[in-house]
Amino acid sequence: MRLDRRCGAGIAGWLSVAFLSVPMAMSHRVCPAAERLRVGSAAIEIPADDAMDMAGGIHPWKANGAEAPLRATAVVLARGAEKLAICACDVIVVQADFVDPVLERVRQATGIPPERVLVHATHTHTAPSTVRAHACERDERFVAGLGKAIGDAIIAADADLAAHPDCRLRYRLGEESSVGQNSRLLLGDGTIFWVGKRDDAVRPTGPFDPELPVMVFETGLGQPVATLFNHSTHTIGARQPGKRSPAFYGLAAQELEREEGGIHLFLQGASGSTHNLTVGVDEAILRIKAAVSSARSVAMPRAIDRLVAIKEPFEFRVRAFDESAEEAAVMGYCTKRMGTGGEAHATAEVFRAQRAEIAPFQGETRTTSIQTLVVGDVAIVGVPAELFTVLGQEIKRQSPFRHTIIAELSNDWVGYVPDSRGHELGGYQTWTGHHSYAEPGTGERMVAAAVSQLGRLQEQLREQAGLGATRSGER
Description:
The chain has helices spanning 22-25, 96-110, 140-159, 247-260, 281-298, 323-337, 341-358, 389-398, 420-425, 442-474; strands spanning 3-6, 37-45, 53-54, 61-62, 71-79, 82-89, 117-121, 167-175, 181-182, 185-187, 201-204, 211-219, 224-231, 263-268, 274-275, 300-302, 307-317, 365-375, 378-382, 386-387, 403-407, 416-417. By secondary structure, it is α+β, with helices and mostly antiparallel strands. The chain has 2 domains: 3-179 and 208-310 and 368-474, no CATH class; 321-361. The strands form 7 sheets. Strands 1-2-5-6-7 form a 5-stranded mixed beta sheet. A 5-stranded mixed beta sheet has the order 14-13-12-8-16, with helices on one face. A hairpin with a 2-residue loop joins strand 18 and strand 19. Helix 4 crosses helix 5. Residues 1-33 have low confidence and may be disordered.
């Protein structure tokens, strides 16, 4: 296990015991204006080997070595008694059942409460499996090492705060519009593209989000401490086939660290409906690096008066489905678009088996969480799903904060969450399976819950700012 300790930024996560009301979840004293920002960071390699089952496809596979380490990369922000932590992990998803115990370990070691720790999956498709999905099972040995790495990274980042007692934030909303696109293409027969032939593609069925926000944390003298960047394209694409890899975003982050200094964290945006269909891996890495570096070079200082967070339970229901309609949709697409009849039948059988496992739970209510962190005038919204881009954009449109970042696949995973129109159009992301089982309308309800959190946080910050001004006038 490799420990890379440098300066960094903040994390916030959750345990079931952290289902608190807003006042309780935010019960930290108001910091005096004179208090300075401290930043700590660390990167821990997640143990993995060739015996582990790899995820990211319909069937499990074995890797032959690694082209770069898989990492749990953490930043902790502190201002007075207030702290936030963010940990980005090079895995396909994280789930609450193994994240929550880690958050309790972090609380015991650092005092950071679970609602102030966000644990995120970068969604690389070239890492061992952390979930039961398609024909893949969770690799429990990998998950055990992942959990330890998450805790170690956050605890090490917290210890690193003392090394950087006087930091600042610079922010820039950058852009990268060529790495990725809305990949749910309407095809000539009225179906939605997933894999296989697309020579009859008509048009995209939704938006692509080119925004690339960059948060730069550095010392007062401008020395790099940590950089957080966010973009909204599925993390698929390693340089070397058959290798474990953090894929193009993670590879870009590690190269930027070597070239520019400071820890680099990538947060996956709302990318449930977007993929990179046209740009090669080497070129994608170059373009992402260029976009991050460009934004970093012109990022402007942002004031940080508070570090606040809220995390709340979110209930949704397992969808009811028509088995015959599901079978027809999957089999029809696979037969027409995949290379061979054998491949089509094998793929359809995987979805058939998933539906059989899910069928007894139709209509069941389940609980996950939605989280919001605020650093100055930048809000980070953590959702536990592969959220369609149109939904992420709607959260940003309605947010009362000047800058809002969507971090999907945070703290838990409930599969793809489309908008209602996406459900109507159909396609792989809506076929019932472990990868997609929430009922239609869940996406819009997630948007409403996130916007509600953003509104309440801003209102509380305004009230506290007014109270602080009143007390200052009294003195």
